[in-house]
DNA sequence: GATTGCCAGATTGCCAGACAATCGGTGTTG
DNA sequence: CAACACCGATTGTCTGGCAATCTGGCAATC
């Protein structure tokens, strides 16, 4: 491999801070509703306050935190109602993307899509929760990137952070990964067959069932 | 009215800076592609560099500017291709919102919607471009707020900045405002009649025609 | 005893100033 | 003419600080 030195952009402290905080929120290190004290975060992350505050503004725009003037940032509690709303928008976006994909995906991307599907299959078989989440995210990332509408992709990515949060929860359900695999394979087959209508339908069904799984996961506790 | 002093949140310098910069971008004060030099903006806006940089991070998240490490922020040139992509996502979101609205809008919101429609009619008659843009934005804001899905509203608002940019351009076309009024009235009537299918269709048609108008406006120059 | 007023600590909003790293252009040199 | 070194301009980041605001508890009042 030797000298993988293709640093496209030199990763600033600010970016690194955003990533660290985002990951901390995903893994539940910060309880929802808990307040984030700037000075504490500075010492924990080893960055200065200006850099931290820039990072917080980015996360605020991602809706991962809320910043109330003179009260500071906090992790908003993600209500079931709101989670449901996210799933509904997911359904809308992913169905559209899948349908478009069926019409215009390139052979290379189709191949990459199949590869990511296989990667998910392996993750599902190995019961590796983290791998399941990342490979599933890859699968959709390829679909969104290949749908021919960069804004659709951009909007979906804006939702992705909160989507992944739930995906981790629901994948832990017994049998959910295998069902998910079947549904994703349906989407892939429809796209490969260049059938937009079937692709939309499969994508919708996948989100619908993911939502149901998330509901169960949420009701039975974390 | 007396002492309308209910300032819910005390408008920080950072927020004010975001608003000023956003407006400056809308009005075309910054040419697309032009670079924004921090020190210059600081003196022009009368704020310190940390505050400015926080504001820039917020605008970056809104996709109104791009920040390349070590090169600084700049206003991205909005290509026609990208504008088209925005219109497509608009169509998706607004059709969905209108359809949901037809099912669940409250009588008060419906009344507010009619009021905003009348406001737009007045603006269209007076040939006041700015008023047309704001009243049209109001009309859709009510629909998105009443559709029952806060995330849909949130995503749409994320697109709104760039939508308004084009709305201003296309409204200036002869007769576009009157056509727009007709289309919006169709949407309103369908919602008032509680007909989701018609509402979706009307919303789609409205976006489609707005897109065509924007295309013409773009081709004939600013 | 409950409510109100108030004060001190903690925290945020904001700023000035500074320094190293990096980028872009310019001139020099082979 | 190309490659290289150089330099101003700009950004990334930090330190330190001060005023404004919030929070929790204490005392005063009814």
Task: Walk me through the topology.
The structure is a homodimer of 222-residue chains.
Chain A: H1 13-26, H2 38-45, H3 49-61, E1 66-68, E2 72-74, H4 80-104, H5 107-126, H6 129-145, H7 150-171, H8 176-192, H9 196-219
The structure holds a DNA duplex (30 and 30 nucleotides).
Summarize this entry quickly.
The first copy, chain A, is an all-alpha fold and 222 residues long. Chain A folds into two domains: 13-74, Orthogonal Bundle (Arc Repressor Mutant, subunit A), CATH 1.10.10; 80-219, Four Helix Bundle (Hemerythrin (Met), subunit A) (Up-down Bundle), CATH 1.20.120.
Describe this structure in words.
2 copies of one chain form a homodimer. Chain A has 222 residues and is mostly helical. The first copy, chain A, folds into 2 domains: 13-74, Arc Repressor Mutant, subunit A (Orthogonal Bundle), CATH 1.10.10.10; 80-219, Four Helix Bundle (Hemerythrin (Met), subunit A) (Up-down Bundle). In chain A, 72% of the residues lie in helices and 3% in strands. The first copy, chain A, contains 9 helices and 2 strands; from the N terminus they run αααββαααααα. Chain A has helices spanning 13-26, 38-45, 49-61, 80-104, 107-126, 129-145, 150-171, 176-192, 196-219, and strands at residues 66-68, 72-74. In chain A, strands 1-2 form a two-stranded antiparallel sheet. In chain A, helix 1 (13-26) crosses helix 3 and helix 4 (80-104) crosses helix 7 (150-171). The first copy, chain A, is globular, with a radius of gyration of 19 Å. The A-B interface holds A 9-12, 14-15, 50, 53-54, 57-58, 60-63, 68-70, 82, 85-86, 88-89, 92-93, 96, 149-152, 154-155, 158-159 and B 9-12, 14-15, 50, 53-54, 57-58, 60-63, 68-70, 82, 85-86, 88-89, 92-93, 96, 149-152, 154-155, 158-159. Chain A binds a DNA duplex (30 and 30 nucleotides) through residues 10, 12-14, 37-39, 47-51, 53, 69-72.
């Amino acid at each position: 491999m030797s000298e993988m030195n293709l640093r496209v952009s030199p990763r600033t402290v600010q970016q690194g801070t955003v990533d660290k905080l985002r990951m901390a929120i995903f893994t539940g290190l910060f309880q929802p509703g808990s307040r984030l004290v700037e000075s504490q975060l500075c010492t924990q992350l080893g960055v200065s306050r200006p850099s931290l505050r820039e990072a917080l503004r980015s996360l605020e725009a991602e809706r991962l935190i809320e910043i109330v003037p003179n009260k500071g940032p906090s992790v908003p509690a993600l209500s079931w109602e709101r989670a449901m709303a996210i799933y509904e928008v997911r359904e809308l976006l992913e169905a559209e993307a899948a349908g478009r994909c069926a019409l215009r995906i390139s052979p290379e991307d189709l191949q990459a899509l199949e590869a990511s599907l296989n990667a998910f299959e392996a993750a599902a078989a190995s019961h590796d929760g983290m791998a399941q989440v990342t490979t599933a995210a890859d699968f959709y990332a390829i679909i969104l990137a290949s749908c021919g509408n960069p804004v659709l992709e951009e909007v979906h990515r804006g939702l992705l952070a909160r989507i992944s949060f739930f995906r981790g929860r629901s994948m832990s359900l017994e049998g959910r990964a295998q069902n998910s695999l079947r549904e994703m394979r349906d989407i892939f087959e429809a796209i490969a067959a260049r059938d937009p209508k079937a692709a939309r339908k499969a994508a919708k069904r996948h989100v619908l069932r993911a939502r149901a799984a998330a509901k169960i996961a949420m009701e039975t506790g974390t």
